[in-house]
Design goal:
By secondary structure, the chain is an alpha+beta fold. Helix content is about 15%, strand content about 30%. It starts with a strand and ends with a helix.
């Protein structure tokens, strides 16, 4: 979806509102996926200074827990507002994504907002205990392993570290 901010600034008299559903599943996501279409609304209003853009969206995210590798399914709400003045469109460091024709790329804007909204580390629960270092099972699933003896490292490959600390 592309939106011509320049044309809206010069000739629009009424607010513009569009609902969207964007399939972003093919995008490159860091350690998670957005499998379902992202739905939302995009609104542009004239102001005395220029235009006010409102973006609202809802994105479902699927990932693995960073501690125990259990599936994580979360939904994130995005609600952002931007003010754009005519001189902003001339600025080479303009923060909103414009395509080669100077049109606002709403799909890229939604993608960037999801990247900024979703936490870098996703957990199945805030108090996730992770995996047992002995048996590899989820600790919350009832791992009954006893903690390793303090004198011996849990992994023989780490014994050199124990010697360095002595």
């Amino acid at each position: 979806m592309r939106f011509d901010l320049n044309e809206f600034l010069t000739s629009a008299k009424k607010p513009y509102t569009a609902s969207f559903s964007m399939d972003l599943s093919g995008r490159d996501w860091p350690d998670y996926q957005v499998p379902a279409p992202v739905a939302g609304t995009f609104t542009v209003n004239r102001t005395l200074e220029g235009v006010q853009i409102s973006l609202e969206a809802e994105a479902a995210v699927e990932a693995e827990c960073a501690r125990c590798l259990a599936p994580v399914h979360e939904t994130y709400q995005i609600a952002q507002q931007y003010t754009v003045r005519p001189r902003d469109l001339e600025d080479p460091d303009f923060e909103l994504p414009l395509d080669e024709d100077g049109l606002l790329d709403v799909e890229e804007l939604v993608y960037q907002e999801i990247l900024l909204t979703v936490p870098r580390v996703l957990l199945c629960s805030p108090d996730c205990l992770g995996l047992c270092p002995i048996c590899g099972k989820r600790k919350a699933a009832g791992c009954t392993c006893q903690p390793a003896d303090e004198a011996a490292p849990a992994d023989a490959r780490l014994s050199i570290l124990k010697q360095l600390l002595s």
